Amino acid sequence: MSTQSKAGNGVERPLSPHLFIYAPSWTMVMSVVHRGTGAALYFGTLLLAAWLIAAASGPVAYDWAMWAFGSWIGRLVLFGYTWALVCHLIGGIRFLIWDMIIGFGEERRLLALGTWVLSGVFTILIWVVGYMVK
Amino acid sequence: MRTPLSQVRGRGTAKFGTEDYWMQRITAVAMVPLTVIFILAVVCVVGAPYERAHAVLSSPLVAIPFAAMVIAGVLHMRIGMQVIIEDYTPSDAWKILFVLMNNFFSALVAIATLWAVAKLSFGM
Q1: ipTM
Q2: Number of domains making up chain A
Q3: Chain B closest CA to A107's CA: distance in Å?
Q4: Do B66 and A52 touch (CB under 8 A)?
Q5: pTM of the full structure
Q6: Cβ–Cβ of A38/B117 closer than 8 Å?
Q7: C-beta of residue A10 within 8 angstroms of C-beta of residue A4
């Protein structure tokens, strides 16, 4: 009977101060970035869906979509989408490496920083090539 | 006699954790090459007129990897977003609502995108 009140209903329990008591490290930052880019890409799938539906709907709809994607705000969003995609891809490969229990030594910092640097390099490269072939 | 056991029954895990964990890795590995193909295809059609974009997107070399990427991607993002929801949603009611919306959103994205890929491939 009286045990019920202690089972968790309305009882304020102390939470462990998990995230904010640590000094930030690159592995931690990249973990947070991975989750952030993942969440962004989740909603970014709407861009992919819009693009393909417009292409499937015909030239008029496609021109509308191209106008929206080609506007300066559209380009800004797509640039952000490109970086999120590349960053999540490279970060994902890093997590797959760690899943194999490889790379937990001093190189872990390099792996985390590498995600940051490589994602920037590849994003710019993709856009430079995109503008060149256009 | 009543023991506290009845209060903890049904409050444990859903027992789907291992499947979700493994599915997240399978779809991740699948999407490494598929995303590279996707980026190359997008760079190929950027700024191109409609006819050329349609020709590229309806080619099986593009349409099949696209469909595969959408399927893997939706499975992957559904699990990922559910983890985020479970981590940050304090009450069960909101959690159930958000997880439900996550499932609907993921299904909608999959159906809409696959419809478009199919329509591009099989004509209009």
Answers
A1: 0.89
A2: 1
A3: 22
A4: yes
A5: 0.87
A6: no
A7: no
